[in-house]
Amino acid sequence: MKIFLDTIGCRLNQSEIEKMAGQFRAAGHVLVDNPSEADLVVVNTCAVTTEAASDSRQKIRQASRAGAPRVVVTGCWATLEPEAAAAMPSVTQVFTNPQKERLVSELLGIPEENFDLEPIARRPLPGSHKRTRAFIKAQEGCNNFCTFCITRLVRGEARSMPVDAVLKDVHSAMAGGALEIVLTGVHLGAWGKDFTPPSQITRLVRSILAETDVPRLRLSSIEPWDLDADFFALWQNPRVCQHLHLPLQSGCDATLQRMGRKTTQASYAALVKMARLAAADIAITTDIIVGFPGETEAEFMESFSFIQKIAFAGGHVFHFSPRPGTPAARLPDQVSRDAAKQRSVVLRSALSESAHFYRKPFLGFVRQVLWEVSEYLDSGNWHLEGLTDNYLRVSLTAPGDLWNKISPVRLTGLTSDGFAGKLADS
User: Per-domain residue ranges for the chain?
Assistant: First the structure.
């Protein structure tokens, strides 16, 4: 059977779709790069914003218009609105998040243990999914009560994957050729807190470093209130990537309080200081929401000033999207869409400028790059794109295909989103 896999949203969704890909391939099926070629399309949806939900529905319509005879829908939007998902064109089945782990097994009618096989070589997912990094789910669900977030409703309570289960997935990914592991979760920093006795994410990272020789270990988004000094000691090991994504959401304490966030300007700034003392080159990236209910112009400017003070290496800016069923959707003083869009433009410009200042000191130096994209050119050379451990995006032209290899690269020029470079001597 020919299968097309598509996913919207977070790295956890990416981790899940990669696991499905491995299971389909292990069962002898072929992944294709276009829904028009597929006998079956699986769409892993997102509902974190109204735009993400709309994108999810668009992906389903695109698969139907392409002529896919069967479309199976899963993920957060499908969990939030299963009847609406089932009613969409060509959709034959809906698997909510609690059912997602059994999706491939039930579709193929084979036991889950059949997938516990020898690893197969890693390949980029057909289509636009050309990542070489292996996204490993370590945690699911969330116990926080951020007033804007729908994720707790669609992912359930926080629960952690046992160390042995995570190690098994890491070993499998490495045996298939992965050179970088990215730990993912809805609330990754809560890993281990549901164990008896409780544990911490630091233990999991140390276990992976001790039990494997993975060249790179990266942490995905992690909330800024789960970390302590022991956590930052992890960067004594050079295999831990010098990059942290710490969602701030707002740089104004009053807004953060209405959001239900467990951080303040002072605690967040202290955390960033600890991170930069632990790893001098570390890239700190973030997420920001503008136009949250009650955000006055003064609150926005306070947030803007704090964001400039932190000097992020990059980040994502979203304008507030009211989600039915969340407390924030019912808050008074909703900010107009036009005002939110204007604030988005201002913050995106500020983050772009701070990202440029973060990158500039690396110009002329050599960094190790893991190549994620390789495209053959008419000239006979290859166009390559990849990432350094501190999340600098690098592109260059080389005489050979280096996909899923790590190479020393001299960073020779700044681009709009990273660097141009040239291969350096090993």
Answer: 2-115, 132-241, 363-423
CA-CA-CA-CA torsion sign (335, 336, 337, 340): negative
- Which amino acid type is present at position 411? L
Place of tokens 């997420």: 287
Q: In this structure, what token pair is assigned to residue 314?
A: 């990059």
Task: Supply the DSSP symbol for 249.
Answer: B
The DSSP secondary structure of 356-410, one letter per residue, reads HHHHGGGTT-EEEEEEEEEEE-TTS-EEEEEEETT--EEEEEESS--TT-EEEEE
Q: Which are the contacts of 63, defined by CB distance < 8 A and separation ≥ 6?
A: 4, 6, 35, 38, 41, 43, 71, 90
180, HSE (Cβ side, Cα atoms, 13 Å): 27
The architecture of the domain spanning 132-241 is 2-Layer Sandwich (3.30)
The pTM of this model reads: 0.87
Tell me how long the chain is. 426
- Which residues make Cβ contacts (< 8 Å) with residue 49, sequence separation at least 6? 318, 321, 323
Determine the Cα–Cα distance for residues 310 and 288; give it in Å rounded to an integer.
13
CA distance 38 to 28: 15
Q: How many CA atoms lie within 13 A of 303 on its CB side?
A: 28
- Side chain identity, residue 148: F
Say how far apart CA 72 and CA 264 lie, in whole Å.
Answer: 42
Task: Say if residue 213's pLDDT is above 60.
Answer: yes
Instruction: Say how far apart CA 215 and CA 369 lie, in whole Å.
Output: 12
How many other CB atoms sit within 10 Å of the CB of residue 186? 25
What CATH number has the domain spanning 2-115? 3.40.50.12160
pLDDT band at 148 (very low <50, low <70, confident <90, very high): very high
CA distance 159 to 119: 26
Residue 101 CA to residue 80 CA, distance in Å, equals 17
